[in-house]
Write a structure and sequence with these properties.
This is Adenosine receptor A1. This protein is an all-alpha fold and about 210 residues long. Helix content is about 80%, strand content about 0%.
């Protein structure tokens, strides 16, 4: 049923919805859910009438209520737990099929479900790296919100933010090393757009040299 359910059009709509939701969630602080009004009130209570200066630090400008209650508890933790349950069910079904060696469209069920298991492991690795990259920042945000007297070193916050950005760079590497189709596609893109350009540049520089 996969080919009948997951059509190219439905896949495109799902991807577009993911991007739209991501933009709305990520840009929410720019719509007003930030610490600007709080900092203005603090300045007024302190009786300071000088120029309003904002210290450009993550925990200073971003609301921890937004990061914890909205971002973490709504858009990160529930999907993460849901994906974990889905992968556990996928692994369970594949192992059952491998143990029963049921018939399938493939001539070799062992080979077919072994391939499916390998792909599932690769996607589970992506999920694990996502959790490893994003949970430290959200844990620090929870500490900041629920324990205001607790002080966390800024270097830990910077490392946690770096991990969240680095997660985007991990996925293509995992796909390239674990899934053959992705690796083949990456090599084709590299050879077509990078190797050809370098070869053309080398050829152009050779023809541009003056003759003796």
């Amino acid at each position: 049923r996969y080919k009948s359910v997951v059509t190219p059009r439905r896949a495109a709509v799902a991807i577009a919805c993911c991007w739209i939701v991501s933009f709305l969630v990520g840009l929410t602080p720019m719509f007003g859910w930030n610490n600007l009004s709080k900092m203005r009130r603090t300045q007024e209570l302190n009786g300071s009438h000088g120029e309003f200066v904002i210290t450009c630090q993550f925990e200073t400008v971003i609301s921890m209520e937004y990061m914890v209650y909205f971002n973490f508890f709504v858009w990160v933790l529930p999907p993460l737990l849901l994906m974990l349950l889905i992968y556990l069910e996928v692994f369970n079904l594949i192992r059952k099929q491998l143990n029963k060696k049921v018939s399938s469209s493939s001539n070799d069920p062992q080979k077919y479900y072994g391939k499916e298991l390998k792909i599932a492991k690769s996607l589970a690795l992506v999920l694990f790296l996502f959790a490893l990259s994003w949970l430290p920042l959200h844990v620090l945000n929870c500490i900041t919100l629920f324990c205001p007297s607790c002080e966390t070193p800024h270097i830990l916050t910077y490392i946690a933010i770096f991990l969240t950005h680095g997660n985007s760079a991990m996925n293509p590497i995992v796909y390239a090393f674990r899934i053959k189709k992705f690796r083949t596609a990456f090599l084709q893109i590299w050879n077509q757009y990078f190797c050809c350009k370098s070869a053309k540049n080398a050829a152009g520089s050779t023809t541009a040299e003056p003759e003796n």
